[in-house]
Structures are given as structure tokens and as C-alpha cells.
Amino acid sequence: MKCRMCGFEFDETQLENRGCSSCGKHNCNSYHCPNCGFANSPELDQEFEFITKIKDKLRNRKSTN
């Protein structure tokens, strides 16, 4: 996983307790970056990927017209 805040790449499966050390939330479904502590949500990454695909399709349609 690549942190959306600092760009640090890490293996989320290797994080103990999802990297939560002091966020105070329990079962937040986020992976905290071991470099900066930012909470990265896997669900949000999927949404961004979907939006990027839609934008690419629209761009391709516009360039062919």
C-alpha cells in the first residue's frame, strides 16, 4: 500500500494491529502509515480507482469525437 499523505510504501499485512498506536479509534478499517501515521482507508482507494477509470473513459470518448 502507498500512503496517500507521504507516499511511503508499506505492506499492510505486516502491520501489527493495523498500525494503530494512538488514534483512539477501534476497528476503524484503516491502515496507519508506519512513516507518518496517516490513516489510509482501503475502501477509499477503491473509490479513487473507480473514479480514475471513469475519467479516463470520458477523456477517451472526448478525444475520439
The main β sheet shows up as: 2 strands, antiparallel
What is the beta-strand fraction? 5-15%
As residue ranges, the low-confidence spans are none
Cα(first) to Cα(last) distance is 37 Å
Instruction: Estimate the global geometry from the Cα principal axes.
Output: elongated
Helicity range: 25-40%
Q: What's the structural domain tally? A: 1
Arithmetic mean pLDDT:
81
Assign the structural class, choosing from mainly alpha, mainly beta, alpha/beta, alpha+beta, or little secondary structure: mainly alpha
Count of alpha/pi helices = 1
**What is the rounded Rg?**
16 Å
Q: Trace the largest sheet across and list its strands.
A: 1-2
The tally of beta strands, per DSSP, is 2
Q: Would you list the SSEs in sequence order as H and E? A: EEH
